[in-house]
Structures are given as structure tokens and as C-alpha cells.
Write a structure and sequence with these properties.
180 residues; five-stranded antiparallel β-sheet; 3 helices; FMN-bd; transmembrane; EC 7.-.-.-
Length: 180
């Protein structure tokens, strides 16, 4: 019995040391990770802003996490939205910019757990470019058959549905805002 107690205490000590080391590593790396995430988000927002200045940020609702106005000469020209949806691998987060009439200016995938080689294609700029210009007079493509080349998203139907659904919902959300 004493031998089991001795082994249990040794294992407890090992676990306590490991937990303490992990806490120290986390305390040292957490600020840098947060700074990198902020830098990545800022770069993505500038990439999709369409040349407009970023204005006021406010909370969204539903699958819209936040809204940032796109401004030119103190006039609202559009909005940037952070959108969430579901893909094959779980939740996906993307940022998308729209003109006030709901036309998509640009979009970028921010976080996902999609399948490498299939759903991960959504991280590439050409993938999101398929949706640019849609949303105002022409609806956002929500079916592969609505695309110029459906084979580009072949094998990743759930990812496509998640991305296109989020972009469509974002367009409708922006239309409801108008120039407000």
C-alpha cells in the first residue's frame, strides 16, 4: 500500500510541475499570440476594404459578430462584417466587405477546421473572388451550378455551402442597414 501511495505522490508531483511549466509558457506566449491575431485581422480588413477607410466598429447580431463602416469623405460607402457559419470541419469565421446595396467587395477566411486540400481552398484569394460583385442585383451564388467553374469547389460542398450562406446572409444584413 505504501508503494502505491509513493507512486501516486510522484505522479502528482510530475503533473504539478508540468502544469506549472505550461502556465509559465502560456503567460509568456499569450501576449504575442494576441498581437499576431490583431495584426492578422488588421491586414485582412485592409485587404478587403476596397480602398475605403475603416470607420466605426459596433456589435452585430446573429451570425454577424461585428460591423465596421467603410467611409470615404465622411460618407458611409459600405460595411465590413465578421461572419460565422458552419463548414465540414466545424465553425468557420470570415470577414467580408459590402457596398451599401449589398454588393460584395471582398472576403477573407479567418478561421476554419476544414479538410486540407478540399475545404482549405476557401482560404485562397481566388476562392472568395468567385463571389465578388454579387449580392446587389445578382444574388450571391449559393449553388455550385451558379458559379462560372463549379469544378473549383468540387469535393467541398459543405464548405462551399457554409461560405456562400454566410456571404449571402451578410449581403442581406447590409441591405437592411443601407447607409445607416
Amino acid at each position: 500500500m505504501k508503494q502505491y501511495l509513493k507512486i501516486a505522490l510522484i505522479l502528482f508531483a510530475i503533473c504539478a510541475v508540468a502544469a506549472a511549466l505550461l502556465a509559465v509558457v502560456n503567460a509568456v506566449t499569450a501576449p504575442q499570440i494576441a498581437a499576431n491575431a490583431l495584426k492578422e485581422t488588421s491586414a485582412a480588413l485592409m485587404d478587403i476594404s476596397g480602398g475605403y477607410d475603416l470607420g466605426e466598429k459596433r456589435e452585430g447580431d446573429g451570425n454577424v459578430n461585428y460591423v465596421i463602416t467603410l467611409v470615404e469623405n465622411k460618407e458611409i460607402k459600405g460595411y465590413v462584417l465578421e461572419l460565422t457559419s458552419n463548414g465540414y470541419g466545424g465553425p468557420i469565421t470570415l470577414v467580408a466587405s459590402y457596398k451599401t446595396d449589398g454588393e460584395l467587395i471582398g472576403a477573407k477566411m479567418m478561421a476554419n477546421s476544414e479538410t486540407p486540400g478540399l475545404g482549405k481552398k476557401s482560404e485562397e484569394s481566388w476562392y472568395m473572388a468567385q463571389f465578388v460583385g454579387f449580392g446587389a442585383t445578382a444574388p450571391i451564388p449559393t449553388s455550385k451550378n451558379d458559379l462560372a467553374d463549379p469544378s473549383l469547389v468540387s469535393g467541398a460542398t459543405v464548405t462551399f455551402t457554409g461560405v456562400s450562406g454566410a456571404l449571402k446572409n451578410g449581403s442581406e444584413y447590409v441591405k437592411s442597414l443601407g447607409g445607416k
